[in-house]
Amino acid sequence: MEYIKIGKIVNTFGIKGELKIISFTDFDEERFGKGNMIYILCDDKYLPFTIASFRYHKQNILISFENMNDINLVEKYKNLDIYVNAKDIHHLAEGEYYFFELKDLDVYNMDNKLIGKVLKVEEGLAHNNLRIELNDGKKCLVPYVKAFIHKVDLEQNKIWIKTIEGLL
Prior knowledge:
Layout: E1 3-13, E2 18-23, H1 28-31, E3 37-42, E4 45-57, E5 60-65, H2 71-74, E6 81-85, H3 99-102, E7 106-108, E8 114-122, E9 129-134, E10 139-143, E11 149-153, E12 158-161
């Protein structure tokens, strides 16, 4: 089974087993909705949990798990990552991609020359950025905006970018 990271447990909340989380998804209600199955990576094992409640509190997300309504039962999961089964994600519109889909793509310039590999996608205030490791080992950020991203082809594991002086 393949898992996708969707959040991190940062603290407990109250004494009834609620957990405060940081979400890494744009689909909070869908991912953390009551009855959904999530997984916590603990000691190299993905432990399954069914969500009993989901709510917002002061710009934080709070969740609880079925049959885990005591702080003493959930405290051990603080600072652990939350995952979802990859088969449970929905398809995005054409031209939209999940961050994990862009990771490890080979990066080509407009002359079809391999220039590097996408290490990860970093969220920014105005737009997201691709962290790219160039062939010479240097790392750079390329804004993930139409002005720089020409084409993404997941089947070929390639992304083509438009470069300008000073970008790389």
